[in-house]
Amino acid sequence: MASLIFDGYLVWVSWQDVQEMQVVRYSHLLGVLAFLLQVVIKMMTPNERELHSMVEYLSAGLVLLVLQILAHFLNLYGLGDVIVFFLCGLYMLLEKGVEHYLLAYFMVQALSGSLLLVVQFLKGNIKGMRLKAPIPYIPYISVAFILTNMVL
Question: Over the stretch 33-43, which tens digit does the pLDDT of each residue have?
Fold first, then answer.
């Protein structure tokens, strides 16, 4: 159920990004709801190892938050992109576990950037090291998230 809500969230924000080149802030509540539902499901079916690793999960979430704050302040991504990356990272943290979430998170970032580069290069939208015209980035993040979940 949580994954369906999260997939719906990704489709919704991707559509908004394509239509308006921005995402309405309240739209991210659907992603937060999916994450919270996933947390509740995890807490309802605890095992001994997961109960002891709550500190690891909190530390990993903090690492994701710091990475995203840095990415935003370094102007690598817009605020909407940062929020989507952060929610994808949190989702992967709970889905893949503390051992593999960072690899999955960086795979999503690398794959979304690579997809953007290839598609925009083929469209002729790259001049030098920049895009000629701005494009919606969240659809690339969504596709990369889906592909990464299929591989890992």
Answer: 888 888 887 77
Whole-angstrom distance, CA of residue 141 vs CA of residue 78: 13
CA distances for 54 relative to 42, 88, 94, angstroms = 11, 19, 11
Residues in the chain: 152
- 28 pLDDT more than 90: no
CA dist 108 and 58 (Å) reads 21
List the domain boundaries for the chain: 2-151
Q: Which residues touch 122 (CB under 8 Å, ≥6 apart)?
A: none
pTM for this one? 0.87
DSSP secondary structure of 16-81: HHHHHSS--GGGHHHHHHHHHHHHHHHHHS--HHHHHTHHHHHHHHHHHHHHHHHHHHTTSS-HHH
